[in-house]
Structure formats: C-alpha cells, structure tokens
Amino acid sequence: MITYKDAGVNIEEGYKAVKLMKEYTARTLTSSVLNGIGSFAGMVKLPEGYKKPVLVSGTDGVGTKIEIAIKLKKFDTVGIDCVAMCVNDILCHGAKPLFFLDYIACGKLDSLIASDIVKGVSEGCLQSYASLIGGETAEMPGMYNLGDYDLAGFAVGIVDEDEIIDGSKIKEGDALIGITSSGVHSNGYSLVRKVVENYDEVLEGRTIGEILLEPTKIYVKPVLALMKKFDIHGMSHITGGGFYENVPRMFKDNFTAEIKKDSFPRQPIFQYLINKGVDEYHMFNTFNMGIGMVLAVDSSVKNHVINELKALGEEAYEIGKVQTGGGGVCLI
C-alpha cells in the first residue's frame, strides 16, 4: 500500500504545524474577526466609523531573503518581512490594515520551522493592527528541494473614500520627507547574495548575516498617527526598484522628485555593498539606501511633520522636493 507520506507529504506533521501556529494567530485577532483558524475561510466584519469604506489590498513575498534565513537556520523574523511588504504598500493609500493571510511552501514540512515563520507573521500583524485570520502551508516534494521554503502573503486594509491618498494633492514645491529604514528590508537579495561571500563577516559589531536578516520596518502605526494631524499628499514605499521606480508611483501628474543623496544617513550595509562592486546608480535603483518610506507634504508643515515623526520614535529627514515636469527622479 502506497501512502501520501510515501509520496513525500506528511499529513501528521501538517496537523502538528497548525497546532503550533494557533498560539501565534490567536494573539492577533480583533473583535472584527468572526471565526478562528481551522475554518475553510476567515471572516471579518467591517469596523464601524467609516462613512464610505473602501477595501485596499496588497500581496507580496520576501523573495530570496528567505534563502539567507535557510542558510543561517533563523526563521522567526522573515514573517515580519512578509507582513511589512504588504501592509506598507496599502498604507501608501492611507489604509489601515484589517487582516492578513500567509502562504508557506516547502519541499518537506518541518512543523517547528513553519511555526517559527508564523511567529514572525503574527509579530508583524501586531505591529500593524492586522489580524492573522488564515493561510496555507503547502508541502510540495519535487517542486522544492529538501529544506527549501518560500513565503508570501496577502493583506486587506480599509480607508474612507474621501481620505484615500492617491497623489492627486501633490503639487510643485511639496517637501519630500523620508523615514529611515531598518536596513536592506526585503528587496534586492538576489544581488546581495551574488556579491556577499561570507555571512559570518563582522560589520560594526554584527555579522553580515544578522544585518541582512534584520526585519523590514513596518510604518503603519506612526504614519496612521501622523495622518490624524497632517494632510499627507502622497506616499511611496521604497521597495524593489529603489528610488527610481517607487517614488514616481505616488505622482498622478508630470512631476519630478528632486532628492539630495546626502540629506539622510545610510546604514553601513549599503556602503559595504558598494565596496563589493555595486555601482551607486544600481544601489539607488535596487535598494532603499536608508529610507523606507517617502511622504509628500506641503512645504509649510515639513518641519512639524519631521518633529512629529521623531516624537513617534522615527528618524525622519527632508530629503528633497517636488518639481514640475520630467516625470521621474533626479538624484543630486
């Protein structure tokens, strides 16, 4: 008799994984969630207080950053990255995250590794007001090698239609405020893995591996608090494509973002990558270079915005301004 386990899929290990995951998912649930993990689908009712509620969704993964987690056998932070990549995107339109679902794929399931990943996912949800209401763990022998894992997620948020941030308020002269990143975040790791030879090498007291696994910063709580006091004209999450691709995504009209490269500090890891041979253009076209979120605000409130962000525990800088014409980014 041939069993599913003979084909490479261990159902019992899957049951064990779900049991371990429930501990982490339970702590994220809010009063809007109508059921728990184990149903065929998660159910969430819309919270009160919205006049014309609009649902905003986003999906992403952690890319090849998880390959470093696999090599270093540290899986408890990549889940934060997965949440961050999704919720930071929907935040750009002014949305508050409601719920999150994850997808873990592997060649052979290890329940302890899977629960460690979900531990990070739940931490990311706690940092962003999101409830972890479900997900999928797929064991696929033959598709993935033994020990391989992949991770992706899906977030849904909510915003009043009249409060959507879509770039329509951006105008010439607006100030660009950059909020610092926590490091490389979750983009450009195929390039990182090509140029980094030794994850045990020490850079300013930490190994390169530790620095590269630093989880992506989640901007939800400080930015939502900021939105209650200031009119944010536009937002850009600096992910894959760096400054050149992402900053113009907040513009609806033909504007150029003039950004001063020396207006904010860079973490040492970025200079390390330059020293490894990556030229500056590709650095700004691939990585966040120390700025994970860019806000466009009226120039009259720029200092107040920076001060408020600092009061909220964030490092923020005026990194440039909006110019008419050109349609892109000018780094000076």
Automatic annotation (TrEMBL):
Substrates-to-products reaction catalysed: 2-formamido-N(1)-(5-O-phospho-beta-D-ribosyl)acetamidine + ATP = 5-amino-1-(5-phospho-beta-D-ribosyl)imidazole + ADP + phosphate + H(+)
Transmembrane segments: none
Primary localization: cytoplasm
PurM-like N-terminal domain ranges (all copies): 54-159
Gene Ontology CC terms: cytosol
Pathway participation: Purine metabolism; IMP biosynthesis via de novo pathway; 5-amino-1-(5-phospho-D-ribosyl)imidazole from N(2)-formyl-N(1)-(5-phospho-D-ribosyl)glycinamide: step 2/2
Pfam family, one: AIRS_C
One annotated GO molecular function: ATP binding
InterPro entries in the cross-refs: PurM-like_C_dom, PurM-like_C_sf, PurM-like_N, PurM-like_N_sf, PurM_cligase
Documented EC number(s): 6.3.3.1
A GO BP annotation: adenine biosynthetic process
Domain PurM-like C-terminal: 171-328
Record keywords: ATP-binding, Cytoplasm, Ligase, Nucleotide-binding, Purine biosynthesis
Segment forming the signal sequence: none
Location(s), subcellular: Cytoplasm
HAMAP family per UniProt: AIRS (MF_00741)
Family: Belongs to the AIR synthase family.
PANTHER family registered for this protein in UniProt: TRIFUNCTIONAL PURINE BIOSYNTHETIC PROTEIN ADENOSINE-3 (PTHR10520:SF12), TRIFUNCTIONAL PURINE BIOSYNTHETIC PROTEIN ADENOSINE-3-RELATED (PTHR10520)
Record NCBIfam families: purM
Protein name in UniProt: Phosphoribosylformylglycinamidine cyclo-ligase
Source organism of this protein record: Clostridium sulfidigenes
